[in-house]
Amino acid sequence: MRSRPHPDWITPDWPAGRRVRALITTRGGGVSSGKFASLNLSTQVGDDPRCVARNRAILRACLPAEPAWMKQVHGTAVIDATRATPDTEADAAVTGDPGAVCAVMTADCLPLLLSDRAGKRVGIAHAGWRGLAGGVIENVVQAMQLPPQDLIAYIGPGIGARRYEVGEDVRKAFVGRDSAAAKSFAPRQDGTYFADLYDLARQRLAAAGVAETGPPAEWRASSGWRKARAWQRLLGSPRRPSRVA
């Protein structure tokens, strides 16, 4: 019998097939302390490895299988979750296997969840500005191997538009590819910009022909990302109850 998720964790409200389960973990429910308190799942940030192992065991107890951890590099590579290893460099994963669990870890970046309406396949992407500019959304949509109009997406919590300060180089990376992206950048007096990652992700999803169903309004608020900061997101597979965070 699987454990119940911690009450602070988030269950995305999206119209995915009932065989697909999604879960977003928060900082609550773990054993790490100090700046890692408490459910840190990353092995790369200097936390006590024993605490990370225990935190992952707590999460694993809520899932049908071990999450398909991968080595995220702010890139655009997509892998099949069944072939993922912690050393596999990728920032997105897809699967159609029953019980498999796709996973990404994010802080300021966006977790993007994908599913077809029938719940036959799922995908997940770690979408920061580099990944979005490089085409990680387009790549994971293609890897789903289904018509884009049959897909739905959920954008999870990330940094808010009034908190994400970037330079001209980031703006050019998007506007140079699509002039419509200019509306996602609010100029500041010092020559920098506030970038709206949610808006940029929505643009890429729309251009790819995918319906988008999230995030809830609270994640759009400037303070919304604070609640979700450094929380990990996972996506579960179809046909059998699994979880996404």
Describe how the helices and strands are arranged.
Blueprint: E1 22-24, H1 49-60, E2 78-80, E3 92-95, E4 101-105, E5 110-116, E6 122-127, H2 129-134, H3 136-143, E7 151-155, E8 165-166, H4 168-175, E9 185-187, E10 193-195, H5 197-207, E11 211-212, H6 217-220, H7 224-228, E12 232-236
Brief characterization of the structure:
The protein is built from 7 helices and 12 strands.
Can you walk through the features of this model?
The protein is an alpha+beta fold and 245 residues long. It has helices spanning 49-60, 129-134, 136-143, 168-175, 197-207, 217-220, 224-228; strands at 22-24, 78-80, 92-95, 101-105, 110-116, 122-127, 151-155, 165-166, 185-187, 193-195, 211-212, 232-236. It has a 6-stranded mixed β-sheet.
Radius of gyration: 17 Å
What structural category arises from helix and sheet content? Answer: alpha+beta
How many DSSP H or I helices? 7
Under the CATH scheme, the architecture is 4-Layer Sandwich
Largest sheet: 6 strands, mixed
> What is the CATH first-level class name?
Alpha Beta
Total E-strand runs: 12
Classify the helix fraction into a percent range.
Answer: 10-25%
CATH superfamily: CNF1/YfiH-like putative cysteine hydrolases
Helix-strand string: EHEEEEEHHEEHEEHEHHE
pLDDT averaged over residues? 88
- What does the overall shape look like? globular
Uncertain segments are: 221-233, 236-245
Strand content: 15-25%
Oligomer: single chain
Question: What's the arrangement of strands in the largest beta sheet?
Answer: 2-3-6-5-7-11
Distance N terminus to C terminus? 19 Å
CATH fold-level label: CNF1/YfiH-like putative cysteine hydrolases
